[in-house]
Amino acid sequence: MMSLRTRVALSGAVVLTVFVLFTSLALERAVRDTVLSAREERLLAQVFLLMAAGEEEPGGLVFPKTLGEPRLNLPDSGLYAKVLNALGDPIWQSPSAIGADCPTPLPLAPGQRRFERLSGSDGSTYLTLAFGVTWATGPTPQDYTFVVAEDAAAFHAEVGQFRASLAVWLGGMSVLMLVILVAILRWGLKPLRRVAEEVAAIESGKQAQIQGRYPAEIRALTGNLNALLAHERARQRRLDNTLGDLAHSLKTPLAVMRGALEEGQVPSPTGKTLQEQLGRMGHIVEYQLQRARAGGQQAATLAPPVPIRRTAERLVATLTKVYRDAGIQVTLEMDQGIQFQGVEGDLLEMLGNLLENAFKWGKRRIRVWGTRSRGRLLLVVEDDGPGIAPEQASRLLERGARADEATPGHGIGLAVVREISDAYGGTLRIDQSPLGGARFRLSLPA
C-alpha cells in the first residue's frame, strides 16, 4: 500500500498543479483583456487624430500628405487607416495601406463604435476599430466611417511573451512549493517515524515500551500501545506461572504411577496398558499446554529474535544421542543470521517434532535447511525414509492421525507443529523429498 507521505505528496502535487493551471489561465485571460483594451484605446486615439487632420473641401475630405503618426506614412508598417463613405466605399486610405491586404469593415451610423478582429484574404488577423461620424463643416453634412486597423501579430507576440514569462515563474514557484511541501511533510511525519523506530526496537527486544514524547494527536496511540504491551507481558507471566504450576502438580502423580508399574505392583497385562496410557496422558498434557501457549501468540512478536541454526544444532545433537543406533547422518544448511521472531519454546516445539519425525522414519540421511525470502521464513526438514503418500499428507496433520500404527507414537507431533504455525500465521506442507522420503516445509512470516 502507498505510504502516507507519498499519498499526501501526490495529493498536494495534484492540487498544486490544478491551482497553477487555473491561475495561469485566469492571469492570461486578464492580461489578454487588458492588452486588448489598451489596443482599443490606442486605436481610438488614432481615429481622433485622423479626424482632427481631415478637412472638408468641395471634392470631399482631404488629409495632409504627411500624417502625425509616422507608421501611417510607411508602407506595410502594420498600422493602417481608411475613411469610408455612407455606402461603405473607401474614399481615402493612408500611405501604409497602399498594397496591403487590410480588411474593410461595414460602415457605421454616426456615433457608433465597433472594435473587432478581422481576417485578411491571406489569413492575417487585424484589430480594427471603426467610428461613425457626421461631417457638418461643409454646405451639406456627410456621413463617414473612420477605420484604423493594426496587425494583430504584435498583440499575439505580447500575450505570448507574457505566457512564457508566466510559465517560467509559476513553474519555478510550483517546484519550490513542492519542495517546501515535502519538507513540511517530512517534519510533520517525523513523530510517526519515531514511533515506528521504537516499535521496531521493542520487537527486537532492545526496549520494553515506547518512551519518547509525542504530539497530542499521537500520544493516545503511544499510550494505548504501552498499555497493550504491559497487558501482554502480564498475561505471558500468568501463563508461564500457570504452566509451571501445572507441570509441577502433574509430575508427582505421574512419577508415583510409573514407580508402581516399574516395581511390578500391577499385573503385567494391566501394567502394559497403564504404561501406554501414562505415555498417552503425558503427550495429551503436552499438547494441551502447547495449545494454551499458542493461544497467546499476540505477544510473540515482542520476544527477542531466536537464532534458528543454533536451536537446530541443539536439537540435532540431542536426537542423535537418542537415535545413536540408527546411524543417521544429518546435513544442516542454514545461515547463522536467519532468526525466528517469536517464543523460543515454540521454535523448539515445531522444529523438534519435525526432526524427531525425520529421525523416526529416516534410514540414513536427514537434510535440514532454511532461507528467508520475500518476507517469509522457510524451514525444510527432509529424510530418506518411506515417504508419505499425497492422499495421506493432509490427514497426518490432524490430531491423533498416524501413518503406521505399529510404530510407537500418538500422532500429535505434526498436529502440534500445525497448531503453532497457524497461530503465527504460517503454513505446514508435506510433499516428496529428493532424498526419497518425506519433506516438511514450514513457512512463517519473517
From TrEMBL:
Name used for this protein in its record? histidine kinase
Entries under SUPFAM superfamilies matching the protein: ATPase domain of HSP90 chaperone/DNA topoisomerase II/histidine kinase (SSF55874), Homodimeric domain of signal transducing histidine kinase (SSF47384)
Q: Which reaction does it catalyse?
A: ATP + protein L-histidine = ADP + protein N-phospho-L-histidine
- Residue ranges constituting the Histidine kinase domain according to the UniProt record: 245-446
Q: Which InterPro entries match?
A: HAMP_dom (IPR003660), HATPase_C_sf (IPR036890), HATPase_dom (IPR003594), His_kinase_dom (IPR005467), HisK_dim/P_dom (IPR003661), HisK_dim/P_sf (IPR036097), PhoQ/CarS-like_HATPase (IPR058619), Sig_transdc_His_kin-like_C (IPR004358)
Q: Which is an annotated GO molecular function term of this record?
A: ATP binding
E.C. code: 2.7.13.3
Q: Which residues form the HAMP domain?
A: 186-237
Name the species this protein comes from: Thiorhodococcus drewsii AZ1
One Pfam family cited in the UniProt record for this chain: HATPase_c
Listed A to Z, the keywords are:
ATP-binding, Kinase, Membrane, Nucleotide-binding, Phosphoprotein, Transferase, Transmembrane, Transmembrane helix, Two-component regulatory system
Enumerate the subcellular locations listed in this protein's record, separating them with semicolons. Answer: Membrane
